[in-house]
Amino acid sequence: MLSIPTPVAFALIAVIGYFIGRRTRRHAQLETDQARRELKRAKAVASELETIAEAVRKNLATHHSSINHFKDRVRDLSGHQKETAWQELCKEAEEMLKPTLRLAAQIAHAYDEIRQQSNHLMTFTEIRTDPLTRVSNRRALDETLETMFALLNRYEQRFVVVILDIDHFKKVNDAQGHLQGDRTLQNVARVIDETVRDTDMVARYGGEEFVVVMPHTDAAGACVFADRVRSKIASMLDVTISGGVAVALDGDSPQSLLTRADAALYSAKAAGRNRIFQHTGVDIIPAQELEPATAV
Prior knowledge:
Layout (H helix, E strand, L loop, with lengths): L5 H72 L5 H40 L15 H18 L3 E8 L2 H8 L1 H18 L5 E4 L4 E7 L3 H18 L4 E7 L6 H17 L5 E4 L4 E3 L10
Parallel strand pairs: 4-5
Antiparallel strand pairs: 1-3, 1-4, 2-3, 5-6
Helix pairs in contact: 1-2, 2-3, 4-5, 5-6
């Protein structure tokens, strides 16, 4: 039998241990970075909920003061039988109605905002997280889009969706195996998740497709973001991505919005891949033809 000198054996063990330790440390670092991003996002959600609660508290306090004033005026006028007293009471009721309706609208808006932040909180639960990439899954995406469309319909709060797809992903699986394909998905998801804002939502949409929901963003800003992700992935990884951008418009639904973004993505693929296109609602154009961004 072939015998290995003791010093050589120790050297081999040291080299193997070095590479195992290096890989373990790298994996641990990735988990630490993800935990840090999730913690930052959770703090942003908590801060937003605190802001909403404080606004509601102030509005309720103001309205309570108005109610007390109204009660005092009713008590003062209750002993009078003259027509002028009745007219004064009607005037006081009219004045009371305005802040009451305003408070009702403010509470309704706060409810929608809390619902939106609740969706952000739900992305931390396992049933709304993609087990491979650790970003949100399709269920979380559907719930987020439902909330975003409610805000759009009630308050005209615009938002954008971006679909990003890995170019020639099948070749990665065929040439390097599904294990490397999984690593590629994880790395692409990590780059996207590191690039978005705390208020944005990243979800795995399909096999190698990811969707980013961006509130309070215009088309130009979303295109700048998408191109930034595209450039980072092209420089950091061994793959490229293509993207489609679409702004939610009046009359849109979650399905129609995703369909328009997907059509823009298909145009990016047809134009040669590794590029971003936008669906304007009428036409599909390259992202480079838009005006400079103003939102991101």
